[in-house]
Amino acid sequence: MALVLIGALATTFASGSTLDALNLIRTQGCGGKPGVTMRLARDASLNEVALRMSSGAGLADAVAGAHFHARLSTSIAIAGAADERALARVITERFCTEVLNADFQRAGIWERGKDTWIVLATPFNVPLAKDAVAIRKRALELVNQARSKARTCGSVTFNAARPLTLDSALDKAALAHSIDMAEHGRMTHRGSDGSSVAERSKRAGYTWRKVGENVAAGSPAVDEVVRGWIGSPAHCANLMNPDFSQMGIAYAVNAVTEDGIYWTQVFATPR
Questions:
Q1: For the segment 200-227, what is each residue's pLDDT rounded down to a tens digit?
Q2: pTM, 2 dp
Q3: Rounded distance between C-alpha atoms, residue 57 and residue 145, angstroms
Q4: 109 burial level (CB within 10 Å; 0-12, 13-18, 19+)
Q5: Residue 208 forms beta bridges with which residues?
């Protein structure tokens, strides 16, 4: 959180609410940066976050206390703004990067006298159960797109590899591990019972000759998850491994944990 102390400042911004000022800056751009099209919507839960911060709470504690599960959040505190035009001036000069971040969707504001607390956030929207089949197919599509071209994973270069096919037993193994991670609130390759991906795949009824696993947490978007795996050398190597012919993928949600959602991708070749 950044704190700026100011006196009365002249500005060309028209008067209006703090949210209006934020959205005007967001639309017009600032600091030589172009504006963004998505406007911020005021959120009652984020107003509570801002209120909690005005009493000294840190951002993370305030977000948790207001029961707002944020995928992304930041805060701005400005003390001593004479009016909303002065406030807009400071936001433009000091907090342009935060306000122009198109990933932020909602805002919370608390004002006390000449002091203002602003919270910008993106809510954590998890995939719906009805979307699971489409997500599974999308993951396979993205993985096979990646495998269709030669790629360097860290220091290792892989040739293009044959496309993978989905396997229900591997999906079952992936789901079991995702649920386990979600229940315990931690991302790990080792199951809470000490199991490995090899053991979990066998339990799911898959007789493998070679098996591997990628895990992820925190992102509810499958495209972002796969991009993250491609950008990580070890995960990328699994994804590009020509010895694998099948995959399974699943996710599990536990909104009370820090990451909220947990993904498992299992690669294998049958015996």
A1: 999 999 999 999 999 999 989 999 999 9
A2: 0.70
A3: 46
A4: buried
A5: 270
